[in-house]
Amino acid sequence: MTRLLLDVDTGIDDALAVAYLASLPEVEFVAVTASPGNVGAHQVARNTLALLELCGRTGVEVAVGAEVPLAIPLVTTPETHGPQGIGHAVLPPPSGTVSQRHAADVWVEAARAHPGELTALITAPLTNFALAIRREPRLPELLGRVVIMGGSFYHQGNTTPTAEWNAHVDPHAAKEVYAAFRGLPHDRLPVVCSLDTTERIEMRPEHVRRLARASGCAVEELVLPEQPEGLRSTSDNPLVRHLSDALRFYFEFHRHYDQGYLAHVHDFFAAGVAAGTLEYSTRTATVDVEVDSPLLMGTTVADFRELWGHPPNARIVSDNNPEQAFRELVSSIGALAARLREP
């Protein structure tokens, strides 16, 4: 059983990650917290509550923490994820309500209550995680495993020429988080899923078609580049329908930026790393984040050769297996969608 603390900024690829995690019977959501990023934190929380309920995971605590980054204004991305954060999808209103607790308190109290037992997955800017570490500096030692989606090392940034989105939204939080892990044992260092390997996880129309087929849909789910933008799915399966609508928006966005009719589903890969279901390898490094230069703000730098003389603070994913990852995604989410199929 993977007991999971999850921080998200849902977000199309966050939504796919949540659906994937919900499809795994061996994953328990201890709590999910909302950081500002792709959309504002309260919209993140509503999206996440609605998605968890759609996936049959009711009763999960969803809490909001920070509403802005630690030291700079919040920038969101409606052009990337849509005005509500989930593309063309319109999720049913959630029946549950957002927790009254602060996200940082949720993390600290859970880690103190279950030392060494919890897996932490952060697919959002590191704002809430940094605040939690400020409240409990032992948090990196109390958590069993930590997986972070963020950063870009030997790969072009996706927000500036050198910076990845999550790190760019709150570079000060990222800098604090990595500093907190310096000197910890190797098995306590966070596994970092950076653009260097997450951009290899390219979801394409064929994967959507296969997912719908795996769910038992009677009619093929076709999300194709020649179709009108904004076309909505008519699938009789609610999970397939909403994921298809979200992913169509993401495909359209990537095409607008000359990357092809596809979607880099970074957060799904990080979710599979946290759940232990996807193949990957890592390299140990010391990571730091630029926070002073306007030109390089949010740039993540990895010292693999100990040139700085600082102890390692991260295990950076150096290789993965996209083909295995999508076989796993189609099989697992397809099975969940089949279980949730409407009459």
The ordered H/E elements are EHEHEHHEHHEHHEHEHHEHEEEH
Whole-number mean pLDDT = 97
Proportion of residues in extended strands: 15-25%
What is the rounded distance between the termini?
31 Å
Helical proportion, percent range: 25-40%
Major sheet characteristics: 9 strands, mixed
How many β-strands, per DSSP?
11
Instruction: Give the neighbour order of strands across the main sheet.
Output: 3-2-1-4-5-6-11-9-10
| Class from helix and strand fractions | alpha/beta
Keywords, separated by commas or semicolons:
13 helices; two-stranded antiparallel ribbon; 16% strand; alpha/beta; nine-stranded mixed sheet; globular; 38% helix; 343 residues
Walk me through this protein's architecture:
With 343 residues, the chain is an alpha/beta fold. The strands form two sheets. It has a nine-stranded mixed sheet, with helices on both faces. Strand 2 (27-34), helix 2 and strand 3 (62-64) form a beta-alpha-beta unit. Helices cover 38% and strands 16% of the residues. The mean pLDDT is 97. It has 13 helices and eleven strands. The longest helix is centred in the C-terminal third of the chain and has 19 residues, at 238-256. The chain has helices spanning 12-22, 41-54, 78-81, 103-113, 127-135, 139-142, 165-169, 171-180, 195-198, 205-214, 238-256, 266-275, 322-339, and strands at 2-8, 27-34, 62-64, 118-122, 145-149, 191-193, 202-203, 263-264, 280-289, 300-303, 314-320.
